[in-house]
Amino acid sequence: MGLLDGNFDAFKGLFPAISKSSFGKDYKNFAVAEFRRFYSIGGTILANFHNTQTSIDERIFTHILLRSVLENFFWLIYIFDGPDEAVWSSRFDEYMNGFKREYSKLYNDPGLPRKCELEPADPGWSALPGPLDVRSLLAAVKTIRGERLDYLYFTYRITSFDTHGKTLQTLFTSAFNKDCNFPVLKPKETIEIIADSYVVIWKQIKS
Description:
Oligomer: single chain
Number of domains: 1
Mean pLDDT: 91
Helix content: 55-70%
């Protein structure tokens, strides 16, 4: 099976087992939770959006949904890079440091109302070391098949721009004083790349 030839179908075939699984290790359960989220988002894109090259309305959804799965994909292939579970645990701790720092930033926002509805942040979380940024992650990892992922930084940044609603044609026309287009991505290819790695990671963590 080639890299872009039915890898989401292969992932889909494993999903009944994935959806029922639970492990005693948080880093494995993180992978499973993200597999479930990817299955829902990736499946939705593949089933419902077929004209992203010509339809701005479709791009509005697919770019935002892709952004939602890309960052955790980068982290999962970083965490599970190799067979050493001690490395898996240590790199998951790096991810959790980032989660705790971001949550602390949210909770300690002086303008945030209704804090009684949130779990209090640990006072020490804001001092935790920061995790790798996305560019550093991409420089540190390869796909399961050994492919460098630096080029996906373009995809990540484009989807981030779309996520913040900054790709409306009227904004570009106003900024550049002419008609111009923002890049349109190919979501199927990105989904198949992610699925390809997730199939292998799943086999790795359940063995």
